[in-house]
Design brief:
374 residues, mainly beta, RNA Polymerase Alpha Subunit, Chain A, domain 2, globular, 4 domains, 4 helices
Length: 374
């Protein structure tokens, strides 16, 4: 059997860094070139022993250091040709700690005829410890559980991780506790459910343009999971549709953000058609929101911020006549309760003259405080 050269992304593991310090850089992997038989290569891809270890026992203080990762392969019939980078410059900085929730990330799918019904993790929160510039941006940790071809419920221990924007695990974060308990409920039987699509956007259109219509082909997708998981799902969100600089109708393909433990039946991509409305004239107004549909027995005591900017489009003559008497923001508070509430604004809350339309508004949410009238 012949040998072949392969390239692998090897996860970095930081060891022996003294308490109270952290590596500032977001380290993830090194790229290794190996020579191996095909079977050994596939064993190596799934081997948990595959690591690029950075031993920081020698570090005596804050500052910059040049370090050389040491690769451990742990599989026979494999030779390391080289890896990049061979030398990594790191900056040792003070560590900070923040507590975040732990989310379970199921990998794979149960055996045919079975479905993932529920997952729990204990403790439900962990403390993440690392450089302030990174830790202060993190909102959750993840623990991966493999449910591939499972037919029975089970419990296991898992190691929390945090990820960069590409979904790669970051090695410069420590966790307390370093291990959590995971329970996975697998049930016999599965259901299918067809649900609608909700577009997600990135970027913004130039002033004077707005989204007139969004349609999908197919207009809905079918999901597969347990009855319990699907009963609360009535729609799923697409991956982000980029609006940056768009001034005309356009089409694209987008993926589907499928909830954990749910699989998508059929094609993984859908076609999206976006129609862009435009007007040569637009005008911005500053409005004071009016609370409507307040629950009886309560009253509004504060709104923050106190004003909302709205951008209108339409014929020049109608825009010139627009003011706070003809353009009104009715802030719908029917779901607000006693205390502080975050209320999401929608275009439908703005009352505008017939020939005008709302292009955009800012901010997207208001903090509203209610108290009892008595």
């Amino acid at each position: 059997m012949s040998y072949h050269a392969f390239i692998l992304e090897v996860p970095i593991k930081i060891t022996n860094l003294k308490s109270g310090w952290a590596v500032a850089e977001d380290l993830t992997t090194v790229q290794a070139t190996i020579r191996a038989k095909n079977m050994a290569y596939y064993q190596l891809k799934t081997a948990k022993s595959l690591e690029a270890i950075i031993d920081l026992d020698f570090v005596q203080g804050l500052g910059n250091y040049n370090v050389k990762p040491q690769l451990t392969l742990g599989v026979s019939d494999v030779w390391l040709i080289g890896y990049t980078p061979e030398i990594i410059t790191i900056n040792i900085v003070p560590a900070v700690a923040v507590t975040v929730p732990v989310l379970i990330d199921p990998q794979g799918f149960p055996a045919n005829g079975y479905a993932l019904e529920d997952t729990t993790v204990s403790p439900s929160e962990v403390t993440i410890i690392g450089p302030a510039d990174l830790v202060n941006t993190l909102q959750q940790a993840y623990v991966v559980v493999d449910i591939s071809n499972k037919q029975n419920s089970y419990s296991a221990k898992g190691n929390p991780e945090v990820r960069d924007t590409a979904g790669r695990s970051l090695s410069n974060i420590k966790f307390n506790p370093a291990e959590v308990n995971v329970s996975v409920t697998i049930v016999k039987g599965e259901m299918f459910k067809t649900v609608g699509l909700v577009p997600a956007f990135a970027g913004s259109l130039p002033a004077g343009y707005w989204i007139a219509e969004v349609t999908f082909d197919p207009p809905a997708v079918t999901l597969r999971s347990s009855v319990k998981r699907l009963e609360a799902i009535n729609s799923v969100t697409t991956t982000r549709i980029d609006l940056t600089g768009k001034t005309t109708d356009f089409s694209d393909q987008v993926g589907i953000e499928v909830p954990a433990g749910v699989s998508l039946v059929g094609e993984k991509l859908v076609n999206v058609n976006v129609k862009i409305g435009s007007s040569p004239f637009n005008r911005k107004l500053v409005l004071v929101p009016h609370g409507v549909n307040v629950t009886p027995g309560f009253k509004v005591v504060s709104m923050s911020p106190a004003t909302v900017n709205v951008n209108l489009a339409g014929p020049a003559e109608d825009l010139n006549k627009a003011d706070r008497n003809t353009v009104v923001l009715d802030l719908d508070l029917r779901e607000a309760t006693s205390g502080d509430n975050v209320v999401k604004l929608t275009a439908e809350m703005f009352r505008v003259p017939e020939k005008l339309s709302v292009i955009s508004f800012d901010p997207p949410t208001l903090q509203v405080t209610l108290t009892k009238t008595n």
